[in-house]
Amino acid sequence: MRLRVPVLAMMLFVVCSARAQSPPPPDQTEQIRILLERVQQLEKRVADLETKPAAAAESPVNVAAARKPEAAPPPGPVQGHQHETAETQASVGQMEVHYPSLQIRGFGDVNFSATDQKGTNSGFNLGQLDLHLASALSRKVTYFGELTFNAQPTGYTVEVERSIIRYDYNDFFKLSFGRYHTPIGYWNTAFHHGAWLQTTISRPDMVRIGGSFIPVHFVGFLAEGNIPSGGAGLSYNVGVGNGRGSIISRPGDAGDNNSNRAWVANLYSRPVKLYGLQMGISVYRDKITLPIVTATGNEFREWISAAHIVWTKENPEFLAEFANVNHKNILTNAITNNQAYYVQVGYRLPWFEKSLKPYYRFEHTHTPLSEQLFTNQNLVGSTLGLRYDITNYASFKAEYRNTKRLPTDPRVNGAFFQTDFTF
Amino acid sequence: MNATIKRVMTFLWTILCASVVLHSSSTAQTSRGADIAVVVNADTPVADLSLSDVRKVLLGERQYWNSKLPVVLLIRAPAARERDVVLRVIYQMSEAQFKQYWVAKIFRAEAAAPPRIVYSNDMQFELLTALPGAIAFVDSRNIRPGTKVLRVDGHLPGEKGYPLR
To answer: So what's the ipTM on this one?
Structure first.
């Protein structure tokens, strides 16, 4: 008996809470469906009426009615339909694309963090406020832009994250110019700056905003499209641009700092028979010129090779990415290799309107002691969290992170909370 | 200790039963009705698509019928059976996932606009005839002249093996 009472209470709680989360009860959905069917029947009936000979409209009764407009009866089915047709035509007119057709979407997030790292404070912080602009300039020319407003100790900074004009020839060739997120790997071009888009609060360290492991941004031109490949579902991106600037975490927005262009190539496959799977490889080549000349010179060749495999459905979600960054000193020929990877798994739970998604990510970054360009980027970290979608356009996330940089550093534990949204 | 395990097991069993009941009631609602036809503007240079081709079109991975004719996607508003079938069979997404998919697609600069929402068959057929390259999903009982019904995987609506039902 002692066992039954809590069990019954639990059953009641589970069923009630599950029901409480349901958007419209099945009855209401059924009513909407019946109403829609009714609308369709009426539309059919009206179409039948319209096909009747036009002479019927000129019948004595109608002529009489036309002669006495003040005595006209209330609108009948035909008049009602004429009104509906006019409305439909107006809707059709509204749905025709007008150029330019600017659409603006915003993303934002608010965070709370607390860690046991010495010298840090717990507290709230405002994440990036991100505005995304998309505007079709004609049937084949489109502009895309992304601006972020970033909270700083002394105010806000505004950054042009992306500014792209693209000409579509067809599905196999689209050419664009501007500032991109460099198409290396998966995350950097899949999630951009809106935290709401990604499952987790934080990005993997290898594609961290403001990080330098891979060049997150790229200024130049990019060709992209599908490759006729049957069931393999191949696509490509090939680009040429300025590459890293004097500050290696930034691209040369205002101009390159050497006369050597960087190039990037990305090939990925979305197999037709495995809907949800994407796998790809990327290479990036650049010459880096540092502003300060040292005894070992200031010029380096950079080769980045990367691979990714992702399963984008959420039952489960699986993301894995690896990158190797090779640096060669042009003066001394000294070579270093830096590696980073992450593996992230998430699962959309079937309960509570599928609003809950627990996830886990392991990531590892290794930079050798002899590395000449990167300051220490070593990291071994785990992230465990839960995402709760409050609505279709807002979520709460809670995350526990355990990270360690150098072997001599202590492990850092942290709790992070975020609410993020799009508007 | 045994009592605790028993309670935990009962709790898990209750959640499992509740989810099965809720899931079965939600799937039962979408398992009846006529086939959903894939209908295009009469001038569209296509007559037969595989289901994976239809999926590519709906996912925005195929955006052109040919280099001069862009695809114009039309999708019924929520609660219409046509939309339920498209989401369940082709997108394999929930309503929320569908909305999020298109927000992300535009944000990635892979598409300039989401599919256009249509609220009735009248509106759908007006747009199908008015917009070159338009593609829509229509209850096969409501097909009207002046448009083209595509074969999917070689089958027309009503034929055995037709996938959109």
So the answer is: 0.76
